[in-house]
Amino acid sequence: MKKLLLTLTLALITTAVQAQDISALTAETKKAVLPVIPKVVTAMQEAVAEKGVAGAIAVCKEEAPALINQKRQETGWEIRRVSLKTRNGERATPDLWEARQLADFNIRAASGEKPENIEKSEIVTIAGQTVFRYMKALPVADTCLKCHGPSEGLDAALKVKLSESYPHDQATGYSKGQIRGALTVKRSL
Ligand code: HEC
Q1: Environment class of residue 45 by beta-carbon count within 10 Å: exposed (0-12), middle (13-18) or buried (19+)?
Q2: Residue among 83, 151, 175, 180 to mutate when testing ligand 1 (max atoms within 8 A of CB)
Q3: Which one, 44, 64, 76, 78, has least CB within 10 Å?
Q4: The domain that contains 111 carries what CATH number?
Q5: Domain that holds residue 158
Q6: Is the pLDDT of residue 147 over 80?
Protein backbone atom coordinates (compact mmCIF):
# COMPACT_ATOMS: atom_id res chain seq x y z
CA MET A 1 0.00 0.00 0.00
CA LYS A 2 2.79 2.36 0.99
CA LYS A 3 4.63 1.53 -2.17
CA LEU A 4 1.54 2.21 -4.26
CA LEU A 5 1.06 5.59 -2.59
CA LEU A 6 4.68 6.47 -3.21
CA THR A 7 4.37 5.48 -6.87
CA LEU A 8 1.20 7.54 -7.21
CA THR A 9 2.80 10.55 -5.54
CA LEU A 10 5.83 10.31 -7.79
CA ALA A 11 3.58 10.08 -10.85
CA LEU A 12 1.68 13.17 -9.72
CA ILE A 13 4.89 15.10 -9.12
CA THR A 14 6.22 14.09 -12.55
CA THR A 15 2.97 15.26 -14.17
CA ALA A 16 3.12 18.58 -12.32
CA VAL A 17 6.75 19.14 -13.31
CA GLN A 18 5.94 18.30 -16.91
CA ALA A 19 2.99 20.70 -16.94
CA GLN A 20 5.30 23.45 -15.71
CA ASP A 21 7.93 22.50 -18.28
CA ILE A 22 5.36 22.58 -21.05
CA SER A 23 4.11 26.05 -20.22
CA ALA A 24 7.66 27.45 -19.98
CA LEU A 25 8.73 25.72 -23.20
CA THR A 26 5.58 26.90 -24.98
CA ALA A 27 6.12 30.51 -23.94
CA GLU A 28 9.78 30.43 -24.98
CA THR A 29 9.00 28.76 -28.31
CA LYS A 30 6.20 31.18 -29.17
CA LYS A 31 8.34 34.20 -28.32
CA ALA A 32 11.14 33.02 -30.58
CA VAL A 33 9.15 31.62 -33.49
CA LEU A 34 5.79 33.36 -33.88
CA PRO A 35 7.19 36.71 -35.13
CA VAL A 36 7.99 34.91 -38.38
CA ILE A 37 4.24 34.60 -39.22
CA PRO A 38 3.47 38.31 -39.76
CA LYS A 39 6.80 38.61 -41.62
CA VAL A 40 5.73 35.93 -44.10
CA VAL A 41 2.27 37.48 -44.51
CA THR A 42 3.74 40.95 -45.12
CA ALA A 43 6.26 39.60 -47.65
CA MET A 44 3.42 37.92 -49.55
CA GLN A 45 1.15 40.95 -49.45
CA GLU A 46 3.97 43.17 -50.75
CA ALA A 47 4.72 40.69 -53.52
CA VAL A 48 1.05 40.56 -54.57
CA ALA A 49 0.85 44.38 -54.57
CA GLU A 50 4.06 44.72 -56.63
CA LYS A 51 3.83 41.81 -59.01
CA GLY A 52 0.22 40.63 -59.01
CA VAL A 53 -0.83 37.20 -57.72
CA ALA A 54 0.81 35.16 -60.49
CA GLY A 55 4.09 37.08 -60.08
CA ALA A 56 3.98 36.54 -56.32
CA ILE A 57 4.22 32.76 -56.58
CA ALA A 58 8.01 32.87 -56.66
CA VAL A 59 7.98 34.82 -53.39
CA CYS A 60 5.75 32.23 -51.73
CA LYS A 61 7.97 29.49 -53.03
CA GLU A 62 11.32 31.02 -52.10
CA GLU A 63 10.91 33.84 -49.62
CA ALA A 64 8.43 32.34 -47.12
CA PRO A 65 10.54 29.17 -46.68
CA ALA A 66 13.71 31.32 -46.51
CA LEU A 67 12.26 33.37 -43.64
CA ILE A 68 11.36 30.15 -41.82
CA ASN A 69 14.79 28.73 -42.54
CA GLN A 70 16.39 31.80 -40.99
CA LYS A 71 14.44 31.06 -37.78
CA ARG A 72 15.63 27.45 -37.86
CA GLN A 73 19.19 28.67 -38.00
CA GLU A 74 18.69 31.24 -35.23
CA THR A 75 17.12 28.72 -32.86
CA GLY A 76 18.51 25.34 -33.95
CA TRP A 77 14.95 23.93 -33.82
CA GLU A 78 13.07 22.17 -36.60
CA ILE A 79 10.48 24.60 -37.93
CA ARG A 80 8.24 24.28 -40.99
CA ARG A 81 4.73 24.67 -42.34
CA VAL A 82 2.43 21.68 -42.76
CA SER A 83 -1.05 21.10 -44.13
CA LEU A 84 -3.55 18.27 -44.64
CA LYS A 85 -4.08 19.65 -48.18
CA THR A 86 -0.61 20.56 -49.40
CA ARG A 87 0.50 22.74 -52.24
CA ASN A 88 4.14 21.73 -51.85
CA GLY A 89 3.87 18.11 -50.69
CA GLU A 90 7.65 17.71 -50.54
CA ARG A 91 8.00 20.39 -47.89
CA ALA A 92 4.68 20.41 -46.11
CA THR A 93 3.45 16.83 -45.65
CA PRO A 94 2.69 16.36 -41.93
CA ASP A 95 4.06 13.46 -39.90
CA LEU A 96 1.61 11.34 -37.91
CA TRP A 97 1.60 13.58 -34.81
CA GLU A 98 1.12 16.68 -36.94
CA ALA A 99 -1.66 15.09 -39.02
CA ARG A 100 -3.48 14.17 -35.79
CA GLN A 101 -3.19 17.71 -34.46
CA LEU A 102 -4.34 19.23 -37.77
CA ALA A 103 -7.43 17.00 -37.73
CA ASP A 104 -8.03 18.01 -34.11
CA PHE A 105 -7.56 21.73 -34.99
CA ASN A 106 -10.39 21.39 -37.54
CA ILE A 107 -12.62 19.79 -34.90
CA ARG A 108 -11.74 22.50 -32.39
CA ALA A 109 -12.54 25.24 -34.95
CA ALA A 110 -15.85 23.53 -35.81
CA SER A 111 -16.65 23.45 -32.06
CA GLY A 112 -16.33 27.23 -31.88
CA GLU A 113 -12.71 27.85 -30.86
CA LYS A 114 -11.25 30.91 -32.62
CA PRO A 115 -8.87 29.57 -35.32
CA GLU A 116 -6.26 32.25 -34.56
CA ASN A 117 -6.01 30.99 -30.96
CA ILE A 118 -5.69 27.29 -31.76
CA GLU A 119 -2.35 25.72 -30.78
CA LYS A 120 -0.99 22.53 -29.24
CA SER A 121 2.08 21.73 -27.14
CA GLU A 122 3.23 18.30 -26.04
CA ILE A 123 6.35 16.53 -24.77
CA VAL A 124 6.71 13.28 -26.67
CA THR A 125 9.25 10.49 -27.00
CA ILE A 126 10.52 9.80 -30.51
CA ALA A 127 12.88 6.83 -30.88
CA GLY A 128 13.90 7.09 -27.22
CA GLN A 129 14.53 10.84 -27.46
CA THR A 130 12.46 13.40 -25.52
CA VAL A 131 11.11 16.06 -27.84
CA PHE A 132 9.00 19.16 -27.26
CA ARG A 133 6.48 19.75 -30.03
CA TYR A 134 4.49 22.90 -30.71
CA MET A 135 1.98 23.66 -33.42
CA LYS A 136 0.04 26.84 -34.25
CA ALA A 137 -2.93 26.99 -36.64
CA LEU A 138 -2.66 29.26 -39.68
CA PRO A 139 -6.19 30.47 -40.50
CA VAL A 140 -7.30 31.66 -43.94
CA ALA A 141 -7.63 35.45 -44.11
CA ASP A 142 -8.94 37.53 -47.05
CA THR A 143 -5.47 37.84 -48.63
CA CYS A 144 -4.97 34.07 -48.63
CA LEU A 145 -8.09 33.53 -50.76
CA LYS A 146 -6.39 34.98 -53.83
CA CYS A 147 -4.19 31.89 -54.00
CA HIS A 148 -5.99 29.33 -51.81
CA GLY A 149 -9.67 30.17 -52.48
CA PRO A 150 -12.09 28.22 -54.70
CA SER A 151 -10.42 27.31 -57.99
CA GLU A 152 -13.12 28.91 -60.18
CA GLY A 153 -12.46 32.32 -58.60
CA LEU A 154 -8.67 32.29 -59.08
CA ASP A 155 -6.82 34.54 -61.54
CA ALA A 156 -6.22 32.74 -64.88
CA ALA A 157 -2.48 33.53 -65.07
CA LEU A 158 -2.08 32.36 -61.47
CA LYS A 159 -3.72 29.03 -62.29
CA VAL A 160 -1.25 28.47 -65.12
CA LYS A 161 1.70 29.25 -62.82
CA LEU A 162 0.34 27.02 -60.07
CA SER A 163 -0.18 24.06 -62.37
CA GLU A 164 3.39 24.47 -63.70
CA SER A 165 5.04 24.65 -60.27
CA TYR A 166 2.64 22.45 -58.31
CA PRO A 167 1.04 19.77 -60.49
CA HIS A 168 -0.31 18.04 -57.35
CA ASP A 169 -1.67 21.19 -55.69
CA GLN A 170 -4.45 20.41 -53.19
CA ALA A 171 -4.43 23.81 -51.50
CA THR A 172 -7.40 25.53 -53.15
CA GLY A 173 -11.10 25.64 -52.26
CA TYR A 174 -10.62 27.23 -48.84
CA SER A 175 -12.93 29.84 -47.35
CA LYS A 176 -12.14 32.57 -44.84
CA GLY A 177 -11.64 31.36 -41.27
CA GLN A 178 -10.81 27.77 -42.21
CA ILE A 179 -7.46 26.36 -41.09
CA ARG A 180 -5.05 26.33 -44.00
CA GLY A 181 -2.31 24.52 -42.10
CA ALA A 182 0.04 25.10 -39.20
CA LEU A 183 3.46 26.25 -38.21
CA THR A 184 5.18 23.37 -36.46
CA VAL A 185 8.22 23.28 -34.17
CA LYS A 186 10.26 20.34 -32.84
CA ARG A 187 12.86 20.80 -30.11
CA SER A 188 15.03 18.02 -28.74
CA LEU A 189 15.16 18.27 -24.94
C1 HEC B 1 0.41 34.86 -54.01
C2 HEC B 1 -0.19 33.57 -53.71
C3 HEC B 1 -0.35 33.14 -52.27
C4 HEC B 1 -0.98 33.82 -51.25
C5 HEC B 1 -1.63 35.20 -51.30
C6 HEC B 1 -0.93 32.93 -50.11
N7 HEC B 1 -0.28 31.76 -50.41
FE8 HEC B 1 0.05 30.18 -49.18
N9 HEC B 1 1.15 29.30 -50.59
C10 HEC B 1 1.38 29.79 -51.87
C11 HEC B 1 2.37 28.95 -52.54
C12 HEC B 1 2.90 29.14 -53.94
C13 HEC B 1 2.73 27.94 -51.62
C14 HEC B 1 3.74 26.83 -51.79
C15 HEC B 1 5.08 27.27 -51.18
C16 HEC B 1 6.18 26.24 -51.30
O17 HEC B 1 6.52 25.86 -52.41
O18 HEC B 1 6.71 25.85 -50.24
C19 HEC B 1 1.95 28.20 -50.41
C20 HEC B 1 2.05 27.41 -49.27
C21 HEC B 1 1.39 27.66 -48.10
C22 HEC B 1 1.51 26.84 -46.92
C23 HEC B 1 2.43 25.64 -46.74
C24 HEC B 1 1.75 24.35 -46.90
C25 HEC B 1 1.54 23.89 -48.33
O26 HEC B 1 0.37 23.67 -48.66
O27 HEC B 1 2.52 23.76 -49.11
C28 HEC B 1 0.69 27.39 -45.98
C29 HEC B 1 0.45 26.90 -44.57
C30 HEC B 1 0.10 28.57 -46.58
N31 HEC B 1 0.52 28.70 -47.88
C32 HEC B 1 -0.78 29.41 -45.93
C33 HEC B 1 -1.18 30.64 -46.45
C34 HEC B 1 -1.94 31.62 -45.68
C35 HEC B 1 -2.42 31.42 -44.25
C36 HEC B 1 -2.10 32.71 -46.48
C37 HEC B 1 -2.74 34.04 -46.13
C38 HEC B 1 -2.21 34.73 -44.97
C39 HEC B 1 -1.47 32.40 -47.77
N40 HEC B 1 -0.92 31.14 -47.70
C41 HEC B 1 -1.46 33.24 -48.86
C42 HEC B 1 0.76 30.89 -52.42
C43 HEC B 1 0.09 31.86 -51.71
Answers
A1: middle
A2: 180
A3: 76
A4: 3.30.450
A5: 37-188
A6: yes
